[in-house]
Structure formats: structure tokens, C-alpha cells
Write a structure and sequence with these properties.
Elements: E1 5-10, E2 21-26, H1 54-57, E3 95-97, E4 100-102, E5 112-120, E6 141-144, E7 151-157, E8 163-170, E9 180-183, H2 184-190, E10 197-204, E11 230-237, H3 240-251, E12 258-265, E13 268-278, H4 281-293, E14 300-303
Parallel strand pairs: 5-9, 6-8
Antiparallel strand pairs: 1-2, 3-4, 5-10, 6-9, 7-8, 7-10, 11-13, 11-14, 12-13
Length: 304
């Protein structure tokens, strides 16, 4: 079942009628199989009316993956990073979704984050993204909560070492514990398509300095004999006593193994309290939901 949440982005009022909204949706785990659509999409006449409500805007009620048996994804070219001006839309900062505030980074250069990726497909194919480009699930693109639009990033699957460069042109995913929503093509290219989610590292690219492009991730791949492990981090403390008190409370809740590890952050030593390792993404989602229901600090995904 689709587990996506709606993204509502307020456009500049000077450019729209009063109170108009542009709406984009991102899914977390599209279903398979689904209705067959060619790379060019359906031939039925239609247009994307962003003024409609979410229930009226999309032709499909749920997201899905098309029959891709005849699509050769190896022949789809990756985007070439280039210096581009920020889009007129989609870069408001800060912005709010479901009561949560987000800030858009001024540039993609230097961004490097590990987390869980999802992908989106048929339901949104041919509709406008948050910066008013047209989403094409057969191109290498992605949605991010924080990277500027448009920008470029390298996404690497930490479980197999496969990577792809994507054009970031959308906002999302606003599903808990996800850091990026990939196009179908990108998900297939790096091998997260069969399961719907995957453990990835996202590295921003600076087109103005090609020589400084981040090297593909190699630290956690089958070639090294080390598989990535999933944890939920519940807190980080300068005071070791506070960390141990939280760890003791978590152990009493039987949410899984609990550890306290030291980490150096900006010259400070912090004690990180983590639950895990956890076996899969679904267990991570259940664990963070349980923490929320108990009024404990909201957990974040940690991959090591």
C-alpha cells in the first residue's frame, strides 16, 4: 500500500492568484505490478492542473510501477552536472510541511548524508515537480527536502556500491525516515527498485568545480566484506551520565539492543544513544513510531 504523504509548497503570491498552492506528492514504496505505460506516457489528452485538490489532480489514486520488461535502463544517459540558476519555484526557505520546518541549503556542494531512499513512479509521471519541471520517471531525477532546486547529487546504494547522478528537481519525501525520493530509472539503476527502499549515501555535486566532485562511496559494499547496519539514534549528549540514563530507559522498553558510542562532532565529543542493529527498514519505521507514541525523543536513522 502506498505510504506517501502530500507535499504542499506555497508559491510566491506575486506570481499566483491569492492562496494558490502548487502540490507535489512523493511515494515511499510503489506497488508492483501495475498498469502498463510506455516511456512516453499515456496518449490520452490531459493537463496537470495544479489548482486542483490532491484527490482530483492525479489520474491514478495510488502510486505504482509500470511494466518495465521492455525498457533498457542502461541506455538512459545520466544528467551532466552544470551550473544553473535557482528555480523560480520550490526554493522558499524555511518552508513548512505537516508542522515541520525545513531549510533549503544555499548550495549542494558539501552535502553528504546517509539514510533510506524511496522512489516514485506512475502516479506522478508527467506531472509538475516542486520547481515546475515535468516529472519523467524514465530520467535520472530525485526529490530532496533540503537540496536547492535544481541541483545535482550522486546517490550510492550502500549495499551493492552502485551509484547514479541525479538531477534534484522536487521536494520530498515527507515520509518518516527517508532522505531522498528517486525516479524509477534511478531506483532501477542502483538496485533499490525490487524492494522499494534502500540504504544510500547522497553526496551533493558542485558543477563549478568538477575536480572536486565526490568520489563514489566504497567504504560499505560487498567488496569490502562489510554490510551496512541500521540503527535508530535517539539522542546525542555531551554528558555521559545523561546518555546512560536514556540508554537505561530504552533497554527497559525492549525495543532492541541499545548502545552508547562516542563520536567527535565539530571538535566536541558526544555520546550517541542508538537502538540496533535493526534488521530492515520496516523495523526502523516501527521503532521510531513507538518512540513517538511514548513521548521520547524522535529517533533518526543512522547507517554504519
Amino acid at each position: 500500500m502506498m505510504r506517501g504523504r502530500w507535499l504542499r509548497v506555497l508559491l510566491p503570491l506575486a506570481l499566483l492568484a491569492p492562496a494558490a498552492l502548487t502540490l507535489t506528492a512523493c511515494s515511499s514504496n510503489p506497488k508492483r505490478p501495475a498498469t502498463r505505460e510506455s516511456a512516453g506516457g499515456s496518449s490520452a489528452p490531459w493537463r496537470d492542473d495544479t489548482g486542483l485538490s490532491q484527490s482530483e489532480r492525479y489520474r491514478h489514486r495510488q502510486d505504482s510501477t509500470p511494466d518495465i520488461a521492455g525498457v533498457d535502463f542502461s541506455k538512459i544517459p545520466e544528467p551532466v552536472p552544470e551550473v544553473l540558476p535557482l528555480s523560480r519555484y520550490g526554493n522558499k526557505s524555511p518552508y513548512n510541511v505537516d508542522g515541520q520546518s525545513y531549510r533549503v541549503l544555499p548550495r549542494a556542494a558539501g552535502y553528504d548524508e546517509r539514510g533510506i531512499a524511496s522512489y516514485y513512479g506512475t502516479k506522478f509521471n508527467g506531472y509538475k515537480t516542486s520547481n515546475f519541471e515535468t516529472y519523467d520517471m524514465y530520467k535520472f531525477s530525485a526529490a530532496s527536502k533540503v537540496l536547492p532546486l535544481p541541483s545535482f547529487a550522486r546517490v550510492t546504494n550502500l549495499e551493492n556500491g552502485k551509484s547514479v547522478i541525479v538531477r534534484v528537481n522536487d521536494r520530498g519525501p515527507f515520509v518518516p525516515n527517508r532522505i531522498i525520493d528517486l525516479s524509477l530509472a534511478a531506483a532501477v539503476r542502483i538496485g533499490i527498485w525490487p524492494r522499494g527502499t534502500g540504504l544510500v549515501e547522497v553526496q551533493g555535486i558542485d558543477p563549478a568545480h568538477p575536480s572536486a566532485e565526490p568520489a563514489p562511496v566504497t567504504a560499505v559494499t560487498p567488496r569490502t566484506g562489510k554490510q551496512p547496519q541500521l540503527y535508530v539514534q535517539v539522542g546525542a549528549f555531551a554528558d555521559a551520565g545523561n546518555a546512560e540514563r536514556l540508554a537505561s530507559r530504552l533497554r527497559g522498553l525492549n525495543l532492541g539492543a541499545v548502545r552508547v558510542i562516542s563520536a567527535s562532532v565539530s571538535g566536541r565529543t558526544l555520546q550517541r544513544v542508538q537502538i540496533g542493529p535493526l534488521p530492515d527498514v520496516d523495523t526502523v519505521d516501527r521503532t521510531t513510531a513507538r518512540l513517538d507514541s511514548l513521548g521520547l525523543p524522535h529517533g533518526s536513522v543512522a547507517i554504519q
